[in-house]
Amino acid sequence: xxxxxxxxxxxxxxxxxxxxxxxxxxxxxxxxxxxxxxxxxxxxxxxxxxxxxxxxxxxxxxxxxxxxxxxxxxxxxxxxxxxxxxxxxxxxxxxxxxxxxxxxxxxxxxxxxxxxxxxxxxxxxxxxxxxxxxxxxxxxxxxxxxxxxxxxxxxxxxxxxxxxxxx
Length: 167
What we know:
There is one protein chain. This protein is of the alpha+beta class. The protein has 3 domains: 7-47; 50-83, no CATH class; 87-141, no CATH class. Helices cover 27% and strands 22% of the residues. The chain has helices at 39-47, 65-70, 78-86, 102-111, 141-151; strands at residues 11-14, 21-24, 49-53, 60-64, 96-97, 100-101, 119-123, 136-140, 153-154, 160-161. It is elongated.
């Protein structure tokens, strides 16, 4: 028998990645959905990369679709990721600097030592944007809860209500 008799007849296909026409000689043309002109097109198609914008600097870069779905933020580099984390929440109640809530950092500087895990920082005037050292008070969790509970009103059953009654 001649070897040429066993070779498959080439079938004209279109590359699923780049759109180039090529001849496919494989045996699975009836069951395959995607065909590729070269190995590079196959890898590029399978990795499913997309263009995204860096959440910190705005640079457009490519990232795998699976990585985009897994994370809530997209960063083009480790430096952008760290910079974003260090400035996270700027202008909000729990503004963080280098991963630590800013009012805790200011309170630590005020007392000259790191805060213990059981210590909480209370804003005396109730304004969480006012992080002046004289507005911050260090309390235990229990004392902090008591202060905030005293600001709330109670109904006839003793349950907390949204606002303190004015009478």
